[in-house]
User: What shape does this take?
Amino acid sequence: MDFAVGGASGLQVKLKKPVENKDIISIPFSWIKAIGDIILIKKPD
Assistant: This one.
């Protein structure tokens, strides 16, 4: 949640296996391509 602009800026995901000592990561909405039973993301180049 981005309180400065009054909305959400991304999707937080809790990982089963930590990556770089992080168990929660944030994925910006601009990376999300589709949401359904699965979530498709593509990191911009």
Observations:
- The beta strands are 10-19, 22-28, 32-35, 39-41.
- The radius of gyration is 12 Å.
